[in-house]
Automatic annotation (TrEMBL):
Gene Ontology BP, a term: regulation of DNA-templated transcription
Pfam families from the UniProt entry: BTAD
Gene3D superfamilies: Tetratricopeptide repeat domain, Winged helix-like DNA-binding domain superfamily/Winged helix DNA-binding domain
SUPFAM superfamilies listed in its UniProt record: C-terminal effector domain of the bipartite response regulators, TPR-like
One Gene Ontology term of the molecular function aspect: DNA binding
Domain Bacterial transcriptional activator: 100-241
Protein name, as recorded: Bacterial transcriptional activator domain-containing protein
Species assigned in the record: Hungatella hathewayi
Length: 396
């Protein structure tokens, strides 16, 4: 039930009809999940029919049980009760033992929690982590009983990964810790498990690989959620920056690593420079210092996507597509010496270097015109702009 739903019998996978979300399959899942302890008939009915108006729930459940038994035999399984009624409890038919990964996961975690020593606890946690192949019954993620069980299992899994990861790092087994965190990040990509992946890589001295993973994660958060990296990710970036200063190398090798490479679907060095939000922060702070010394004008522009009435776009799918087109519009409209970054799904920040105040409106119109070419005439863009010198005076 973890990461999907399959039934295997005697080494062969069994298909119970065309849909894995059918009511009789949910009935099996609910009862099998509770194992030998069983679950009350009332709880089963509430779980199955919580959103439906059924005149006689008891009859509906009895018919469902009858259909389930018939379907099991048709799928090639032996004739059996599969679900029995014992003193008002629905329990597994003992004639055909059932092993459920989600139930086994919880059992291993309980054994680990009752262990006396750390090594014994770790052995149970390792087995439990291997069983957790994904979210609980993802095809049924909107069902109330699945949501509740999924949330509980996720919390237990988080406890497992955090304790086991700390234990492995104490043992200096950074490779195993990295694999553990990688699995967690694959299952829950937006829970900051990448921070622990990066930390494991740093502990192994793989600083460049840590940087690659950081950039990939920042892009994921920006593209999928439209948000800048979290506080822990930014702290991770600072830790990496400090570690990389201790990594000696030949100047020519370093120069080749610093070179700007061609991006997929684009040409080398064409248009404005797109960077991650943390890199944009560094560029902003550097340009602020250069401006103080050279007197060169630098402006910060905020471009915001709006609808034709000037309001925020509520349709998230439409906003995501238009955000990608705005990125292309900025890329094509600005000079090589300008930089920009995605701040949210509806906003981009732009650094305009060596631009006059009166030219900022010209830049905005150029971006807006290109956006309309790419997204259609109803695409609208608002902007705010301020000089870095004015911004610094306001902050002072």
């Amino acid at each position: 039930m973890l990461g999907g739903f399959t039934i295997s019998y005697d080494g062969q996978e069994i298909a119970l009809g065309r849909s894995s979300t059918a009511k009789f399959i949910q009935l099996l899942q609910i009862v099998w999940l509770h194992g030998e302890k069983g679950i009350s008939k009332e709880q089963v009915m509430n779980s199955l029919y919580d959103r439906e108006q059924v005149s006689n729930i008891n009859n509906s459940l009895n018919n469902l049980i009858y259909r389930m038994r018939r379907q099991m035999v048709q799928a090639g399984l032996p004739e059996a009760m599969y679900i029995c009624n014992q003193d008002g409890l629905c329990v597994i038919d003992e004639s055909i033992p059932v092993n459920v990964d989600a139930a086994e996961f919880k059992r291993l975690m309980e054994k680990g929690n009752l262990s006396v020593g750390e090594s014994e606890k770790a052995s149970y946690y390792v087995k439990a982590a291997k069983l957790y192949q994904g979210e609980f019954l993802p095809a049924l993620s909107t069902e109330t009983w699945v949501m509740m069980e999924s949330l509980q299992l996720k919390r237990v899994f988080e406890t497992c990964v955090r304790w086991l990861g700390d234990y492995l790092k104490k043992q200096k087994d950074y490779e195993a810790a990295y694999r553990l965190y990688t699995r967690a990040a694959k299952i829950y990509p937006f829970d900051d498990w990448q921070v622990h992946q990066i930390d494991s890589l740093i502990c192994r001295g793989e600083y460049k690989e840590a940087y690659r993973l950081y950039d990939k994660t920042v892009k994921l958060y920006s593209d999928e959620l439209g948000i800048p990296p979290s506080g822990p990710m930014l702290k991770c970036y600072q830790r990496m920056s400090g570690k990389l200063t201790c990594c000696p190398n030949e100047l020519q090798v370093i120069k080749s690593e610093l070179e700007e490479f061609e991006e997929e679907g684009g040409q080398y060095g064409e248009g404005a420079y797109c960077c991650s939000y943390p890199s944009f922060l560094d560029a902003y702070r550097l340009m602020s210092r250069i401006m103080e010394r050279s007197g060169q004008s630098v402006f910060l522009m905020l471009c915001t996507l709006v609808d034709y009435e000037g309001k925020m776009i509520q349709n998230q799918e439409k906003l995501k597509k238009r955000s990608d087109l705005l990125k292309n519009a900025i890329q094509q409209s600005l000079r090589r010496g300008d930089a920009y970054t995605k701040y949210s799904n509806s906003q981009y920040l732009v650094l305009l270097v060596g631009t006059k105040q009166e030219d900022c409106s010209v830049v905005y119109r150029r971006i807006n015109r290109k956006l309309k070419e790419l997204a259609g005439p109803r695409a609208e863009l608002s902007f705010n702009v301020t000089s870095l010198s004015n911004l610094h005076r306001a902050l002072d």
